[in-house]
Design a protein that fits this description.
Number of helices: 5
Number of strands: 0
Distance between the termini: 8 Å
Structural class: mainly alpha
Helix content: over 70%
Strand content: under 5%
Number of domains: 1
Length: about 120
């Protein structure tokens, strides 16, 4: 069960990184730029909300992974997706994207927990 708690912790860390760093380095500057200013406040709010909703879903996955009695198949599926995303981002960004380590770790620990 410790592996699943560690997975959940990595998933929560990913959510914090995604929300805080994304707001500071991506969403905030993008929505304040001339390129997106014409979108208007409603669409800008939707874009910002969707970004942070993704972070909330990351936390939700952490809750699901740590939930007692979760079927091993569900844990393995979640772990495989998280690990695949982390590794794909590692390759695509050549290691520069800050989220790949926690994504991969969350997936790896979920996979270990699923089969332990």
């Amino acid at each position: 069960m410790i592996w699943l708690y560690l997975s959940a912790l990595a998933m929560a860390a990913t959510a914090v990184i995604h929300s805080v760093a994304g707001e500071k380095r991506l969403i905030g500057p993008l929505l304040n730029s001339d390129a997106t200013r014409m979108l208007g406040p409603q669409l800008s709010g939707i874009m910002r909300g969707a970004w942070h909703l993704t972070s909330l879903f990351m936390v939700l996955f952490g809750v699901v992974v740590a939930w007692p009695g979760m079927p091993a198949g569900a844990l393995a599926a979640i772990g495989a997706v998280w690990m695949a995303l982390g590794l794909a981002i590692l390759v695509k960004s050549r290691g520069r994207h800050p989220g790949w380590p926690t994504l991969s770790t969350g997936g790896f620990f979920a996979l270990i927990g699923a089969f332990a």
